From TrEMBL:
The chain crosses the membrane at residues 21-47, 59-78, 85-101, 121-145. The keyword Transmembrane applies. Signal peptide: none annotated. Coiled coil: none annotated. Keywords: Membrane, Transmembrane, Transmembrane helix. NCBIfam families: spore_V_AC. This is Stage V sporulation protein AC.
Length: 147
């Protein structure tokens, strides 16, 4: 086997890698993200027409969207949608549900404690930790500057 230096190998790999179609990817992300938002708006309108107050409508809409994202992930449909839509399926709250359910399903063979429970937050866990942590720090800074 020929010894190849890193630069030549990098050039070889660069030639062989498929080039992404950024315009098509952006359009798909826009369409799918828009459709998810439209579905969320339909759910919101339904709960408003049912007579719920503003806080309850927001909570119910989030719950339904998380359920839909989790259910579609369980059926294996959300991952296929994500391959086509990219960020359009990841950014909405349904993408968060997918990030929680996917690892849990992947490790379900290892049991509920060592598999599902321990791996459920493997992707979303760091996001939650840093999100909560930064919100606490910002809250403390705000409290100190407010005085």
């Amino acid at each position: 086997m020929d010894n190849i230096n890193k630069k030549d190998y990098y050039e070889y790999v660069k030639k062989k890698m498929p080039k992404p179609n950024y315009l098509r990817n952006c359009i798909w992300a826009f369409i799918v993200g828009g459709l998810i938002s439209d579905i969320g708006q339909l759910i919101t309108s339904y709960f408003k027409s049912a007579g719920l107050d503003k806080k309850s409508v927001s909570a119910a809409t989030a719950i339904v969207l998380v359920f839909i994202g989790s259910f579609l992930t369980g059926l294996g449909l959300y991952d296929r949608l994500g391959k086509k839509a990219g960020a359009g399926s990841i950014v909405p709250i349904t993408g968060f549900a997918n990030a929680i359910v996917s690892p849990a399903m992947e490790y379900k063979r290892e049991g509920f404690v060592l598999g599902v429970a321990s791996k459920m937050f493997i992707i979303a866990g760091p996001v939650l930790v840093y999100g909560y942590g930064s919100s606490i720090i910002i809250g403390i800074i705000y409290l100190l500057l407010k005085k």
